[in-house]
Amino acid sequence: MDLGNHSTVTEFILLGLSANPHIQALLFVLFLGIYLLTLMGNLTMLLVIRADSHLHTPMYFFLSHLSFVDICLSSVTVPKLLKDLLSQKKMISVEGCLAQVFFVFVAAGTEACLLSVMAYDRYVAICRPLLYGQTMNKQLYMQLVWGSWGLGFLDALINIFLAMNMIFCEAKIIPHYSCEMPSLLPLSCSDISRNLIALLCSTLLHGLGTFLLVFLSYVRIIATILSISSTSGRSKAFSTCSSHLTAVTLYFGSGLLRHLMPNSGSPMQLIFSVQYTVVIPMLNPLIYSLKNKEVKAALQRTLEKYLQHIRC
Questions:
Q1: 153 Cβ neighbours under 8 A, 6+ residues apart
Q2: What are the pLDDT digits (tens) for 62-110?
Q3: pTM for the whole structure
Q4: Kind of pairing, strands 91-93 and 11-14?
Q5: What is the CA angle 288-103-139, rounded to 5?
Q6: Given strand 173-174, what is the order of strands in its sheet?
Q7: Which of 172, 180, 277, 289 has the smallest CB count inside 10 Å?
Q8: Helix 58-85 / helix 138-163 crossing angle, nearest 10 deg
Q9: Helix, strand, coil shares of the chain as percentages rounded to 5?
Q10: What is the mean pLDDT of the chain?
Q11: Do 180 and 104 contact (CB within 8 A), yes or no?
């Protein structure tokens, strides 16, 4: 394409969630509260898992990384959203936009991998309980976690490397509250065929691929639970994976729907984006603490130790 008659765009305009000042004020209060709860909930999970020796197991090691990823995912988008809700001009530089896309890819991709790793952990715990300690040894679960981070960074690097070659001309309005790759591609006036292929591969391999691993793990888990003769045994086995199943359903449901939907800036598309980048990072610590007796017991022990330390 001949770009000689076009001026190169150096910044984008984010349309945000609403143009109404009164609604923006309400949204600011709402998202500020969500962000503070996200930080408090996930930091509490990190501190409790680190402080309580009863939680020094593979499952809670994965959960601690999930909490850290949730803090990262929320912090990539929400502070900028809060700033824009108080600003008349919602601008972001091309470089800042690409940086935001990169870190969304890293955090979202790593979270998808961690959820699939946690599904495998539950599969081993329920379907092969006698071999759990031997199978899920320290070397393996460390490799699974750092492999998740590595795949997240690799996926982000490939997509951003290709995105850095895109040229943006006249179009500069992003119908969204943050920069995401599906929203950026229509704004380019250069060839984006490679970018589309990379994004499609990311969605199919990194998104649907990890979801398939989760699905297969839970097929085996459910089959094993149904084969247990006693009702109490089935209930106990299901309780060990119900929290994770809830988190998986929410995350993959909203994330995949967001990236498989046509990019139109529709309210439904924005809702799915808000759900998997803002709401789910807040809900995860609540899901894993309210439905998990071990976490609730650890929280109580940690609180008691803290109160004793204050009294002394």
A1: 106, 110
A2: 999 999 999 999 999 999 999 999 888 889 998 999 999 999 999 999 9
A3: 0.89
A4: antiparallel
A5: 55
A6: 91-93, 11-14, 173-174
A7: 172
A8: 30
A9: 80, 5, 20
A10: 85
A11: yes
